[in-house]
Amino acid sequence: MFDTLSDRLSGIFTKLRGKGRLTDADIDATAREIRMALLEADVALPVVKSFVAALKERARGAEVSQALNPAQQIIKIVHEELIGILGGESRRLQFAKQPPTVIMLAGLQGSGKTTLAGKLARWLKAQGHQPLLVACDLQRPNAVNQLQVLGKRVDVEVFAPQPGNGVGDPVSVARESIEHAKRTMRDIVIVDTAGRLGIDTEMMAQAAAIRDAVNPDEVIFVIDAMVGQDAVATAEAFRDGVGISGVVLSKLDGDARGGAALSVRHVTGQPILFASTGEKMEDFDVFHPDRMASRILG
Ligand code: GDP
């Protein structure tokens, strides 16, 4: 991910090497090239605009530094602005004062929610928590089974509608799971929900009903980092339809331009909490804006 953007930026910085003081014209030309590089990487236009405006303002106002030459100064500003659009600091999960903490996952079908549920359960368990996984994706035929397989793999119980009890209503399953968690002393409940291939009012209404039933401490929006410009509309729909408190970027191991990853924080106004980087349960980590920014700059 980000290979093309990294190459483009490094080409832009190379042109600045060896220059003395940067004129306003140099700064404008550099800002234009960075704008193009970000747009070509599928970064959303409002994000690009605010990035470039900040870059210009800071480059013009930059003190003449003894320690940094103009190219280094621009790189420093770009690095800091990238960290800014990725959210600045890492943000930890919010835990309930009174357990269980409820974490609800929302996102389109195929975005990586069920996989993330397993990863998150494994990660929390390794920190001494006692999570419970809850299968509320009753739309996708294999989703409950998939979660049960993952639950087994990470050795975490999965609460699911019982076979024979009808298909089950995801809102009741969600509500019952909280009671079950309290009875069995689980301190974290991870609720997997249904997604559709596209934004759909029925799916949004179901997600909102599950949210109301479980009163989550976190609603995590899972977004496939491989999607391009569609990311913005999807993120806005979940922000407005369900209300989200954090984001997880999945499939960051993919070979995409990375625009979604760079836009989602700005578009949702919520922090990126974790990064998913593969299909295996251990391909998962806390999201660090500074590390991601450094990776983009190569
Ligand atoms: P859901 O429909 O949102 O529950 O999505 P799934 O968890 O079923 O994921 C959809 C597909 O993406 C599956 O084939 C997963 O193995 C795959 N997947 C999930 N997360 C990642 C990731 O971080 N990297 C890669 N390469 N594949 C992933």
TrEMBL record:
Catalytic activity: GTP + H2O = GDP + phosphate + H(+)
Enzyme class, broadest EC rank: hydrolase
EC number(s) recorded for this UniProt protein: 3.6.5.4
Binding annotation for GTP: 107-114, 192-196, 250-253
Localization: Cytoplasm
Superkingdom of the organism of origin: Bacteria
An MF annotation (GO) of this entry: GTPase activity
Record-level GO BP terms: SRP-dependent cotranslational protein targeting to membrane
Keywords tagged on the record: Cytoplasm, GTP-binding, Hydrolase, Nucleotide-binding, Ribonucleoprotein, RNA-binding, Signal recognition particle
Keyword Hydrolase: yes
Keyword Zinc-finger on entry: no
A cellular component annotation (GO) from this entry: signal recognition particle
Entry's free-text remark on domains: Composed of three domains: the N-terminal N domain, which is responsible for interactions with the ribosome, the central G domain, which binds GTP, and the C-terminal M domain, which binds the RNA and the signal sequence of the RNC.
Name of the protein: Signal recognition particle protein
Origin species: Allocatelliglobosispora scoriae
Location of this fragment in the whole protein: 1 to 298 of 509
